[in-house]
Design goal:
The protein has 167 residues and is an alpha+beta fold. It has one domain: Heat Shock Protein 90. Helices cover 31% and strands 22% of the residues. The chain is built from 5 helices and 6 strands. The chain has helices at 12-20, 25-44, 74-81, 103-111, 132-137; strands spanning 54-58, 63-67, 114-120, 124-131, 145-150, 161-166. α2 (25-44) crosses α4. The relative contact order is 0.20.
Amino acid sequence: MSDNTIDANPTKEFFIHMLTKDIGLVRAIVDLVDNSWDGALRAAQGEMFSDLSIEVNTSADQFSITDNCGGIPFQIAKDYAFRFGRPVDMQRTDHSVGQFGVGMKRSLFKMGKFFQITSCSKDCQFVIEIDVDKWVKKSKWEFEFLTVKKHTKKPRNVEYGTTVTAQ
């Protein structure tokens, strides 16, 4: 950066505050249910939804949502799902509520200081864990996969789906 350049990047604290200040917890939960619904739309591909489910659990110190709606494919997780904003070349899901690419992240930051996403799709299983306080201190705006297991056939005793837990 030259002497004539002004750093106008937001701080992560400011970004999180602005992203979550006008959303309540119920709306945050609805946004996550919407994501599961989008997965159900992709998984059903015009068929019936009879074998698909979305389960929401809450307690005083933890929230979770679990679905069997197809999981998050690796490339979507890597290139889109955890980005702040929708890339212009990202294909939209028909009848989806999501438009801007911030709903899931907004909901997760609203729900607490720690979140974990576990997903199994046709191409991989992965886990992402984010301790928000630690993430805020890092200079880069990146999340890291805790584990990734790519596969070419369905693992035994595993449904394609996603679980989101926040504390």
